[in-house]
Each structure stands twice: as C-alpha cells, then as structure tokens.
Amino acid sequence: MASMEVLWGDLLRHRADFDKFHLRSALADDPYRFNRYSIEMEGDLTLDYSRHRISDKTLLLLESLFEQAEVRGRFADMCAGKIINETEHRAVLHTALRGGVDEVSVNGQNVTKDVEEVKQRFLAFASGVRDGTIRSHTDEAFTDVVNVGIGGSDLGPRMVTQALKGWTDGPNAHFVSNVDGAHLGDCLENLNPATTLFLVASKTFTTQETMANARAARNWIVSTLGEDAPGAHFAALSTNADAVQAFGISTERMFEFWDWVGGRYSVWSAIGLPVAIAIGPERFEEFLSGARAMDEHFATAPFRANMPMMMAALSLWYRNIWACGTQAILPYDQRLENFPAFLQQLDMESNGKMVRQNGKPISRPASPVIWGSAGTNGQHAFYQSLHQGADMVPCDFLIAAKPTDASEDQHEMLLANCLAQIEALAFGRSEENVRAQLAAEGMSDDKIDRIAPHRTFAGNRPTSLLLYEQLTPHMLGRLIALYEHKVFAQGVIWGVNSFDQWGVELGKVMANRLLGSIQSGEKGEEDPAVFQRLMSYRAD
Ligand SMILES: O=P(O)(O)OC[C@H]1O[C@](O)(CO)[C@@H](O)[C@@H]1O
C-alpha cells in the first residue's frame, strides 16, 4: 500500500478534479447522491454528507489514508488500555466508562470493576439527592445543585444537562466555572444556602479557578449556616483524594475517577454526577448506552458506513487539501447551544498541536478552529459570511426530526430554516438567475449591472447534516461519542497525542507568578511593561 506521504500527494493532485465541480450540478445530475453519500445508524440517526466536494475517488483515497495510519488498530489499542498517551504515560479509557465492555486492566487495576463500583456509588448519591433522602444541614431536601468546575469538569456536564432539559426532573442545576467572582456571585444571588448542594468537580483538585470558587462557596455556606454545615453541602468529583480531604470533604462524599480519563472525555465518569442528579440514574444509563453503541459502530462499521471515520475524513480533506482554517458547528436546537463550546475543547485541546507523538513536527496543520452557535440565531449574525465571505467554512448542521417539548409549529419553522440553509449554501444563486429576477421586477439594465454582483451567491459551500429522530439521552450519548471518535481518528492520521494538553500549562504558571506581583503591587523582572499602568488604574 502507498505510504501516507504518497497518499497525501495523491489527494492534493486529486483536488484539481474539482476545478469545474459545483454542488448545484452534482446534486441535480445525480438523484442517488444522497443514497451513496449518507450513513444511517440504528434507524434514527443519519449523516448526510452528499453536499461535499467529493467523489468516489476522494473517498477511496481517504480510506487508504485511514488504513495506512491503522486507525482501527489504534482504537483497539486504546480500548485495551495500552499506554497511548505517551507524554503523560497514561492509558486512555473513557470507552470503559460506558460499561458493557470486556474486562480491562491498567497496571494491575481492574478498570471495569472500579468503574462499576464508583458508578453505583454516584448513582445512589444522585437518587438520594433527587428523592430527598440525602438532606441539607437544616434537614431539608436540596432544591439546587451547583457544579463548580472548569474545562472538562464543566463543559461536558453543563452541555449535557442543558441538552437533556426535556428529560430533567431533579433539582435545579447550575454551573459555575469562571474565576471572575461575578460568575459565582450571580449564581448564588437567588439561591437559598439551606437547600443548595455544591459539587466540586476537578480531576486534579488544584485548578486555580475551581478551588477559588469552591472556597468562596464554602464561605457562603459557613457564613449563613455555620461552621458545621459544609459537610452536608459539599461533594467532590476528583482523582485527588488527599486534596479533597484537605479541603474538608469526607471520602464518603468523594466520587473518584482515574488518570486514564481525560478532562474533556470525563462526562461519562463521576463528572457526570450533575447530569445524573438532573435526569436520574436510568436515563444516565441510557446516555452511557448511546456512547457504547457509537463505540461499537466506530470499531466495526466499514469505512463507507462508519460515521466517525467519514466525518474525520471530510474534516481532513478540507483542513489539509482545501486549507480551510475553521469549521462551524451549527445545531438547530436551542438546547444544544453549548455543543459548539464543548466541541471546541474536545477538538482544539486534543489536536491543536504542531508536534507529533514522536516529537517531530507535523508536516501539515492539525485541528482547525472550531466555532459556531445555535440556529436560527447564527443566521442573523454570521451566516452572511458563510454564504458570501471569502473563506470556505465547512459546516456541521444538526437537527432533530421531532422536538422534545417545544411547540410543533415552531419546530417546523426550525426544520425549514435548517434545510433551507444547507440548500442555499450548496446551490447558491447564479448571476444569470439574479439578473432574470431583477429584470422581471422591472429594474433598469444599469441598475441590474450594479446590483446583480451583490445578490449573487457562489454556492458550492460544503455542509454535513446530522439528522436524528429526537434528542434523547441515548441519542446525545451517540452524538458526543461520534465527535470523540472523529477527533481520535484525526489525531491518529496527524500522528499527534490527542490526550495531553501541555499548551495550557505556561499561562497557568505565569498567572500564578503575576498574582503575587498584583497582590504585592511590585513588578517582577519578567512582568509585562503594562503592569505599572494597570497598578495606577487600580490605585485611582
Ligand atoms: O478538572 P481539572 O483538573 O480542574 O482541570 C480542568 C481543565 O483544565 C485543563 O487541564 C486545561 O486547563 C483541562 O484539560 C481540564 O478539563
């Protein structure tokens, strides 16, 4: 088989085959394009990738790339607990958290058994909070649960809790992440300390933002309910038992996870406790089972029927062959409004790297910038640029056929807008068509000459559509795991370690040094020139 570099060369040359390609004719000329370029899973989830600048040859070349990089074998290594996170010398086993897998051990630790034990503990805790048997210091049922965490200890549970609002019947869930004290302050403004439970979520239990917010939350409880109260009002989700105890949370109130769970892959672990409290243990199990179904699909489906592989392949095609620097995530679902932010961390913290696992530079750029927002809001903000801007931005549209509990007629409008956008992006509007319409409206030739270029849409802009029946816990589990595996497959092709994040360390170290300077008011040698100006503003 051809080497990776030869395949990349073939793909680059193949791009010239699209010099005269337009999605308008590709879709119009081939009534079977949707059938050929779509994948269905479990009868209720479809990936429609017919609106892409691709042909069968593109897919053949991309498939060879996946085979050459041994994506499937690397995934098997990951699921078997091999040390694939080499820079941190760790296994990567978020797949084991979904349950239903063969026994896995890491360094003599029976992972499957430990996962099940902790899950039973945190689900029992979730039930107790929900049914009021776990009570506050004042012997009341909890009405509000505040998750204090950041990054993976916030984005996942926050996004999932909001996405599954239609399935929520527990206490109110709140999420505080920012070290800006306004975040916690605004959250606590309308809460009653006597009925508020805090979950301090931090893999390391040393993260500056989380620990500052956790201390402030404890002070709030102590100042209103007394020194003895925090024990009943706090629980911890962490890998660091010593730090949890030092903070004053007992081990019975600590739900552990392990170093082989990356922060951005941790919503399936005890980090999912706020989700389990919101939707209940049974639905949480359905959420896990969705992810497990996607794991099996990724491991077994052939390339052309494999959703994560196809999404990864398309993303590589645009990033590396068409030099698209960004990709947009556009869920037509208000409750998925935090999905783009969640995927930003998943993709950019995993693959936003320029060095391969072996320490050598990557020969082509890896993770694009991931961005987006919920439709239809985005239509009235940045879609102008998606349609007529200079840059081509491949987009993922997501939509449910049936709403969870929104009104049916408004959901029909949502569906119509979503389908209209993918059609408009693909087809565009030719100058000829614009001129004909303006002439029919009675516009003078002079004016048509001036106006027509502005009203012409080039089209030929690529989109994927993820169409699903309804956003159930099982469906959301599948969607998240779909993107996890997409990111994994891309990381394998680029040869990066998708599971470390050294790039965030330097800023943390510098912030700690600067905190000392800001507190003392004395500029250190390495502090920025603007420091004195900052201090003068603070003095006024
Ligand atoms: O859960 P922790 O240890 O508080 O870390 C929070 C986040 O910080 C990071 O390490 C990056 O700053 C993320 O990877 C992680 O999800």
Descriptive keywords:
Glucose-6-phosphate isomerase, 540 residues, SIS_dom_sf, EC 5.3.1.9, monosaccharide binding, 13 strands, Rossmann fold, alpha/beta, 22 helices, binds 6-O-phosphono-beta-D-fructofuranose, 6-stranded mixed sheet, 5-stranded parallel sheet, gluconeogenesis
Offer a quick outline of the entry.
This protein is of the alpha/beta class.
Task: Describe the structure in your own words.
The protein has 540 residues and is an alpha/beta fold. It folds into 3 domains: 4-69 and 301-427 and 462-494, Glucose-6-phosphate isomerase like protein, domain 1 (Rossmann fold); 94-284, Glucose-6-phosphate isomerase like protein, domain 1 (Rossmann fold, 3-Layer(aba) Sandwich), CATH 3.40.50.10490; 504-539. Helix content is 48%, strand content 11%. The chain has 22 helices and 13 strands. Strands 1-2-13-12-10-11 form a 6-stranded mixed β-sheet, sandwiched between helices. Strand 5 (144-148), helix 7 and strand 6 (172-176) form a beta-alpha-beta unit. Helix 12 crosses helix 13 and helix 15 (339-351) packs parallel to helix 20 (473-494). It is globular, with a radius of gyration of 25 Å. Bound molecules: 6-O-phosphono-beta-D-fructofuranose. 6-O-phosphono-beta-D-fructofuranose is lined by residues 150-153, 202-204, 207, 210, 263-264, 349, 501, 504. 6-O-phosphono-beta-D-fructofuranose binds at residues 150-153, 202-204, 207, 210, 263-264, 349, 501, 504.
